[in-house]
Specification:
Oligomer: single chain
Number of strands: 15
Distance between the termini: 107 Å
Number of helices: 4
Radius of gyration: 28 Å
Shape: elongated
Low-confidence stretches: 1-38, 40-49
Length: 272
């Protein structure tokens, strides 16, 4: 009886997969690297104005696992890496697995997929930059940027097979775009307050409002377009996971904050 049910399940999954494949092959639809079906605005799948419509990926990949109750089993996943059931060359293997093994009682994506999902759900902190001198900088003198160094974010849970999944996120680097074309990368621990910090930049051109640039005799000494420099500080968070072994890299996520910073110019005046 289980063999008949498995065959019927396989036929149904293959039928749906064939339909989704035909949709993806249309001129206005394609699958992106994450497995999402994308259609342009002329396609038949709805989406938000200005954004490509996205639909949940199909259950295209076949995985085997070991369940503590039923033992060896199989399940279908949306995550690439398993046996591609859309590839006709895999039909013998797909049929062999689905007719010889039971369906896993708890369908589960691979640990890496679950870990990435957890990593993306973390409340990753944004930089909260403060600048010295505060309010306005001075050309020719260093500007210091400081921001708290956030602690690691961690999560642990027990997988259906009894193993423990650990996920950790930590700030890998702090990237600062100073708004004048300069960009630099630092360790987040370097962004300490003046005078001990080392996230430093020296501006050479002051900023002025449009009226000053246009009408004042010294307007030509100002930045030609900016009223203030947009300084963007970005934390690059790196994710890692492990399942009873060493840590494995997941990838990175960026969290950024932009502040505006006026820069003045100080000129000496000779007194008689």
């Amino acid at each position: 009886m289980r063999r008949t049910t498995s065959v019927l399940t396989l036929i149904a999954v293959l039928a749906v997969s064939c339909w989704l494949s035909s949709v993806a092959q249309a001129d206005d639809c394609y699958y992106d690297p994450e497995g999402y079906l994308i259609c342009n605005p002329s396609g038949t799948l709805p989406g938000n104005p200005g954004d490509p419509p996205r639909v949940r990926p199909p259950l295209r990949y076949l995985y085997t696992s070991t369940d503590p109750v039923v033992g060896a089993c199989y399940y279908f996943s949306r995550t690439p890496g398993g046996l591609d059931i859309w590839d006709p060359a895999n039909d013998p293997a797909v049929i062999g697995i689905t007719t010889s093994l039971p369906v896993c009682p708890v369908a589960s994506d691979p640990p890496e997929t679950l870990a990435w999902r957890i990593f993306r759900s973390f409340p990753l902190a944004l930089p909260t930059p403060s600048l010295e001198p505060p309010g306005s900088g001075i050309t020719g003198l260093p500007t210091y940027l400081a921001t708290p160094d956030p602690p690691d974010v961690t999560h642990s849970e027990v997988l259906p097979d009894g193993r423990t999944l650990d996920v950790r996120a930590s700030v890998a680097v702090l990237v600062v775009d100073w708004g004048d074309g300069a960009r630099a990368t630092f360790e987040s621990s370097e962004a300490r307050a003046y005078p001990s910090g080392s996230v430093i930049h020296t501006y050479t051109t002051k900023t002025c409002d449009a009226t000053y640039r246009r009408e004042h005799p010294s307007g030509g000494n100002c930045h030609p377009t900016l009223d203030a420099y947009p300084i963007t500080a970005t934390f690059t968070w790196a994710g890692r996971y492990r399942v009873g072994g060493g840590w494995i890299d997941l990838g990175t996520l960026n969290r950024a904050t932009t502040v505006t910073y006026d820069v003045d110019e100080v000129q000496g005046v000779l007194q008689p």
